[in-house]
Every structure is written in structure tokens, then in C-alpha cells.
């Protein structure tokens, strides 16, 4: 997983690599933690490192699987269970969440590859923060995913450092410090 994305000739591949780089930051934040540490809430917030991995995978799946591909959601969320997207529940493990995230990543790549171009537009989901009837392109959705995952990767960095002192930089393997040229 790249930490720094090299200049790409193909916009579609570059956007997928930027999303992958942010997913990698989340994976590094949870890597090497015990189940207890990964599920811990070391601050007053509800956030845990494992919960952030789960949440980002669910959000990514919603944007790509549901909105772009028109497929049914893998997980049904509403106001009654929205908080469950931020924590491990019902016997879930870190390994389960990582496998789910990997499956979502593979499906995202498949969906994006199948689009005729990134100008394909879809209606935004119904939510109070989206304008009624608005549409967005696949390009916008991919940029939204970069933003969403990066925001939560930053949260995961802070949580990880508070758990065991490991910083984001210290968790990057030496072979990932250079762009994939």
C-alpha cells in the first residue's frame, strides 16, 4: 500500500491509489494491536481504531456499491444503529473488520474499473447535509472517499499513539516510504 502516490498518467488509477494510501494508514494504525487495544476508546469520544476501520469500509461501500453501482447495501444503517459502524459488535474481531475492508476495496476497484469514465453521475443519497436532487460524479465520489478515509486515518493515528505511543510515521515500513514509481 503506497504512502505517497506517484504521479499517474491515468486519473482513475491515481484516485484508486489515493484511496488505497488512506486505507493503508488505517491498517497501519490497527496493526499489531490486541483486540482489546483495537476496540479501546482511549478518549472521551466513542471512537476506537478498529471501529474507524469498520466505519470507513462501510462508508466506502455505501458510496461505491450502493450509490455508484446501484447494488444493495452490505450493512443496513439508520439512526438506531449508526453508532455500531464505529465499534466492533456481536463477536466481530479486528480480523473480521480487515477482511470486510479488503472485500470492500476489491469491490470498489471493480466498480470504478467498470465505469465508462469518471464523469458518470448519480444522485446523492437522501441526507440533511445534501441538497435535494443533487447529483455527483464518480470523480467527486472518489475524492470524497479520499477525504473521508484521510480524516478518520488521522483520528486513528491519535488513538493509536494514545494506546501505545506508536506514531503514524513509525508504523510505515521502510519499503513504503517512497512513491511507487
Description:
This is DinB family protein. With 181 residues, this protein is mainly α. The protein has one domain: dinb family like domain (Four Helix Bundle (Hemerythrin (Met), subunit A)), CATH 1.20.120. Helices cover 51% and strands 3% of the residues. The chain has a two-stranded antiparallel sheet. α1 (11-30) packs parallel to α5 (138-164), α3 packs parallel to α4 and α3 (49-68) runs antiparallel to α5 (138-164). The model has no long low-confidence stretch (mean pLDDT 90).
**How far is the N terminus from the C terminus?**
13 Å
Rg of Cα set: 16 Å
Mean residue pLDDT: 90
Helicity, as a percent range: 40-55%
Order of helices and strands: HHHHEEH
Briefly, what CATH class?
Answer: Mainly Alpha
What structural class results from the helix and strand content?
A: mainly alpha
Give the second-level CATH assignment, the architecture. Answer: Up-down Bundle
User: How many strand units?
Assistant: 2
Biggest sheet, spatial arrangement of strands: 1-2
**How many separate helices?**
5
Ranges with pLDDT <50 over ≥5 residues?
none
CATH superfamily: dinb family like domain
Count of domain modules: 1
- Broad shape: globular
Largest sheet: 2 strands, antiparallel
CATH topology term: Four Helix Bundle (Hemerythrin (Met), subunit A)
Strand content: under 5%
Please sum up the structure shown.
51% of the residues lie in helices and 3% in strands. The protein has 181 residues and is mostly helical.
Amino acid at each position: 500500500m503506497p504512502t505517497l502516490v506517484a504521479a499517474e498518467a491515468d486519473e482513475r488509477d491515481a484516485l484508486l491509489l489515493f484511496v488505497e494510501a488512506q486505507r493503508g494508514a488505517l491498517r497501519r494504525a490497527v496493526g499489531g494491536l490486541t483486540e482489546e487495544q483495537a476496540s479501546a476508546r482511549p478518549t472521551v469520544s466513542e471512537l476506537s481504531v478498529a471501529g474507524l476501520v469498520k466505519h470507513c469500509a462501510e462508508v466506502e461501500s455505501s458510496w461505491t456499491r450502493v450509490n455508484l453501482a446501484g447494488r444493495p447495501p452490505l450493512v443496513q444503517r439508520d439512526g438506531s444503529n449508526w453508532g455500531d459502524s464505529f465499534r466492533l459488535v456481536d463477536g466481530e474481531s479486528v480480523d473480521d473488520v480487515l477482511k470486510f475492508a479488503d472485500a470492500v476495496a476489491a469491490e470498489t476497484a471493480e466498480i470504478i474499473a467498470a465505469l465508462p469514465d469518471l464523469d458518470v453521475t448519480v444522485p446523492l443519497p437522501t441526507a440533511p447535509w445534501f441538497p435535494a436532487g443533487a447529483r455527483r460524479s464518480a470523480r467527486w465520489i472518489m475524492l470524497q472517499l479520499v477525504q473521508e478515509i484521510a480524516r478518520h486515518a488521522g483520528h486513528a493515528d491519535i488513538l493509536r499513539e494514545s494506546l501505545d505511543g506508536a506514531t503514524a510515521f513509525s508504523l510505515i515500513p521502510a519499503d513504503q516510504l517512497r512513491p511507487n514509481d
